[in-house]
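Exercise 7.
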Amino acid sequence: MEELLEYRRRLLDHFSAVAGDFERWLAGLTSDELQQPLAGAGNSRHWLLAHLRAAEEHLFLVSLQRILTEERPLLEEFDRKAWMRAYYDPQQAIEMLLSGFTIIRQQELDYLHNMPPDGWIRIGRHPVWGNRTLQWWLEMSQAHAVSHLHQLDG
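Solution. The predicted structure, written as tokens, is:
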């Protein structure tokens, strides 16, 4: 049990730190570098951060809130591609995207730090991923962020 508690503590530490990792990575990049398509990805660093913020807000935060406040909620799919087609603004300041992501992460952390001990194992049902615990959602959110952080090297 001690190993599980330690794993969850480290997961929360990494979850909390990733916004700062993005901020450090993006610091000093020019507008051209932010908009330049990345090799293999086809999208820019700016697009990646907009996508990350949107997924965090409309998928991960909503799922976390519902899992903690409802009994076995049926979670909705979030069509990230459709959302990006409809709402992506390449002119939006990178600082706004980054601060938006940071604020959402802080909201998630507030929920996580105030949740009951059994919160980690509460279940949300997803049409594609099936029954998943809050811990799984947190791991998925963190893996999603880290995968995009690695893509910034482009």
